Amino acid sequence: MFCVKCGKDLESEAVNGLCMDCYLNGRSLLHMPHHVDLERCTNCEEYRFGDRWVSMGEEDALEETALGAMEVLPDCSIEAAAAKAVAQDERTFKVYVEADIYVNGCMVTETGDTIVRLKNTVCRKCSRQLGNYYEATLQIRSGDKELDDGLRDETVRRVRDSVEIQSKNNRQLFITSVKQVPGGVDILLSNISLAKGLAKELADAYGADTKESASLVGMSSDGIDIYRLTYLVRLPAYHVGDILEWNGSPCKLQSVGRNGGKIISLTNFREASVRRSDLRSMRIVAKQDDLMEAVVLSKSGGEVQVMHPKTYASTDLKVPDDAEIGDTVMTVQDDEVLYYVP
Predict the structure, then answer these.
(1) The pTM is what?
(2) In terms of CB atoms within 10 Å, which of 33, 55, 112, 179 comes out highest?
(3) Is residue 118 part of a domain?
């Protein structure tokens, strides 16, 4: 084989009948457009790449845009590339690129540049969020008259964390607003399935009751009724860490779930599983926040001697054999009897 232009014998396969020297002579393998636009959401400050919105630094976004605009001839492929952005003004940047291009067994390095114009816009997610768009309401209430502040913050934080994780795969999942209302909190959500899943998560985590209802809010352009759904999550009056009465003796609630919970007796420290219906019928001896700290005076075998947190009298408490006793222990009083709480 020989080059059809210079007649030189070819040691490798020709490119369109030309040797590499003749093929590359006066030919640019890399093509860059004069300019390319980069959209940035002014609310969340994410950048648009095709149909994706990505969170990254401005310089990285500019360079990524320029690299994505590179084109090479059909016989070539880009093996590696780098870019450097230089600001011309607040919205306009000149980006220089350098690319290693593979063609017919050879590696050629070429350079180019383009103008990247920064365009401000608002992404669909933020547009909906700023417009108070929502499809469902998650109502969190308590079996008590009022939802405890700590429990309210805990459940809202759990919801926020779950939505943040799910939104990484679907940007259309978001919290529109969180409203504190008499008796609890209302969380407005962008998606019905999201609200339904969150209601189940809370029910499983707290042994809560759930209820679903729908309300007609309008009609679409093609005549289909549009509904908003409300998911009520009613948390039980008892919570993990509370002291309940079971078979006439106090016990600590260790965990709860959709079907029941686990308790540990404060008299013999044995664990037991109880059904949800049994939990509802138990008397609440003390809430977790009502537990009292007692100073340890001495320890002997399966007992500790403490200073009673109310009367300051020396009191003996039964403790588990494997209990690690420090300078103080947590206690609860029921029917004038003081108990150690593990």
Answers:
(1) 0.70
(2) 112
(3) yes
